[in-house]
Amino acid sequence: MSIRGQTSKGKLVPISAELVAVREESGAGLQPEDRFSVLPADVLIDLPAYPSPPETVWPLDLGPATDFLKTTLQMERRAASQEERRHYAQVCRDYLEKSFNARIRAAQDRVFALRAREAESPEVGLARQRSEQDLADLQRTRQDRLAGLDRLTIARHGPVRHIATALVLPSTASSAEQINAILEDIDPEIRRRIELAAEDVVLAFESARGWECEKVGHLKIGFDIRSLGPANSQTGYRDPVHGVRRIEVKGRRKGQPIRLTTNEWYKAQQLGDSFWLYVVWDPLHNPDPMPVMIQNPAKHLEHAAKPVVSARYYDISADAIESVAARATGDPT
Questions:
Q1: Which positions of the chain have pLDDT values less than 70?
Q2: CATH architecture classification, 187-327
Q3: Strand runs (DSSP E) across the chain, as ranges?
Q4: Per-domain boundaries in the chain
Q5: Angle of CA points 214, 220, 221, to nearest 5°
Q6: Are 3 and 14 in contact (CB under 8 A)?
Q7: Looking at residue 32, what is its pLDDT?
Q8: Helix (H) and strand (E) counts in the chain
Q9: Quick count: other Cβ atoms within 10 Å of Cβ 40?
Q10: What CA–CA distance (Å, rounded) separates 236 from 80?
Q11: pTM to 2 decimals?
Q12: What pLDDT score does 298 carry?
């Protein structure tokens, strides 16, 4: 993690850098202030090696941890660096102003003296012009030097670069099971398999009800599947709310929180009752999965949604999903 500043000429340079360890807890539904914490970097030295590490290294989503670091420790370091540079610039400013003021007064005295002599001795006119030019140069230099000190007071966030990740597992449970559970959260290939399996479950469910459905997730419009109910056989009319479902599909392990992006949550607010959240628990391992369906989740799950602003998503607990679904009565259509 680094902090950048400016030279007196405006060039960006690193002014501070340090190695930081960020610990991320894997518990469900944690807020950033509980999920992340900063540790001394040398904590990694004390970790014993896992005897059977994974054969491959999977890509990691570093965004949440990076956002946490930028909004906490890096911001503190930037503020401290900026205050230190302001103090340094003020000390330099006091010295420069006293120094330049003395030099400018001396240059002004010389110009005034030469002007007085010029009335009686025209030959000193050239010396007077040079003295006036020296005075102008001195005043311009003073202005430039003081402006350069203003640039020294600036401190900005520098780049945060990922060096390594250590996966720390408690010894009280099966390491294999823990790794598999974590992989479902962070391995993009496994996450994609879960998403596709959940979408297949929803497509089969909607088709079995006699609805026409299609995947629209690739269009990035805030939901995954559009499902159309049967139109009136005589008029061809289809109710715009009860005859259409814009379905956001989520596949998760049983008991894990459901995560909606900011775009998905805003789309749920915009579409109201025509927006549905379908949750499929354990779509890869459940032999007979059935979607849990929530109509208008922005309304019925608002009490349980926890916005995670730094990472740009909303977490909804599994208990809230099951509770709201259980309270729904009658045919979900």
A1: 26-33, 52-59, 170-188, 308-313, 329-333
A2: 3-Layer(aba) Sandwich (3.40)
A3: 2-6, 12-17, 21-24, 36-39, 155-157, 212-215, 225-228, 244-252, 258-261, 275-281, 292-295, 306-308, 313-316
A4: 1-173, 187-327
A5: 75
A6: yes
A7: 60
A8: 9, 13
A9: 11
A10: 68
A11: 0.50
A12: 93
Whole-number pLDDT of residue 333:
45
Q: Where are the beta strands (DSSP E) in 167-317?
A: 212-215, 225-228, 244-252, 258-261, 275-281, 292-295, 306-308, 313-316
Q: Give a three-class secondary structure readout of 56-77.
A: CCCCCCCHHHHHHHHHCHHHHH
* Residue 189 exposed, middle or buried by CB count within 10 Å (0-12, 13-18, 19+): exposed
Backbone angles phi, psi at 288, to 5 degrees: -135, 70
Nearest to 128 by CA among 144, 112, 105: 112
Tokens of 248: 């956001």
Q: Phi/psi zone of residue 93: left (φ > 0), alpha (ψ -120 to 50 degrees), beta?
A: alpha
